Amino acid sequence: MKKSIKRTFRVSKYVIYKETLVDYKEHFWSFLGAFFGIGIIAFIQSHSLAETENIFLIGSFGASSVLIYGAIQSPLAQPRNLIGGHVLSALVGVTVYQLVPDIIWLSAPLAVAFSIVLMQYTKTLHPPGGATALIAVSSTGKIPELGYWYVLSPVLSGCIILLIVALFFNNITPNRSYPAHSMFKKLLKKRHHHHLK
Q1: Cα 111 to Cα 133: distance, rounded to the nearest angstrom
Q2: Are 63 and 128 contacting, i.e. CB atoms less than 8 angstroms apart?
Q3: What is the pLDDT of residues 97-152, one digit of tens each?
Q4: pLDDT digit string (tens) for 35-83?
Q5: Cis previous bond, 144, omega within 30
Q6: Separation of alpha carbons 58 and 134, rounded Å
Q7: Alpha helices in 74-156 (DSSP H)
Q8: Does pLDDT of 170 surpass 90?
């Protein structure tokens, strides 16, 4: 029992130590990825949509950026989770809004709870997806009017932009590799070696 406690304490100390290490290069690439990912979406928002209707730049993209640019090895940050989590949650949010549009105390928890279960069931768990579902039921103005178009734009189109930027910035140095899945790593390595020849 004592050995188990000591081992757990040592592992905890190591994890905390690793988390507090400052790797300036990693932070630099995380910054650039997030800056360009959110920046491109914000640029499209400001140049193609009315300033009063902020519908392309939804808040849950900020949370996704933390994962896909700052915690790139996390299972929750992988492309399947990013796209699947947001899209499924958006579908749930819009559907719940269609069924109970004016009862926020019921629609908000239903949207978030159903989106969590659906993401778990499909193995696409992505925490910002809960916010995407909540935005669909709690927003005013243009988003509720979009109906199921909300799933395609801003949600799917925004996710694709974030993913393309992540694939670039998270593979720009040998120390960063995204996505974590081995099939994608092999494809990226083949392309990289092919360009070097």
Answers
A1: 6
A2: yes
A3: 999 988 999 999 999 999 999 999 999 999 999 999 999 999 988 888 899 999 99
A4: 999 999 999 888 776 554 558 889 999 999 999 999 999 999 999 999 9
A5: no
A6: 11
A7: 79-99, 104-122, 128-138, 142-146, 149-150
A8: yes
Tokens linked to 171: 């593979």
CB-CB contact of 84 with 125 (8 Å): no
Would you say the C-alpha torsion 110, 116, 122, 124 has a positive or negative sign? positive
- The residue written with tokens 């103005």 in the block is 141
Which H or E run contains 96? helix 79-99
Residue 128 tokens, joined: 């910002």
Tokens of 147: 């109906």
Q: Report how far residue 133's alpha carbon sits from residue 120's, in angstroms, rounded to the nearest whole number.
A: 15
- Give the separation between CA 195 and CA 180, rounded to whole angstroms: 21
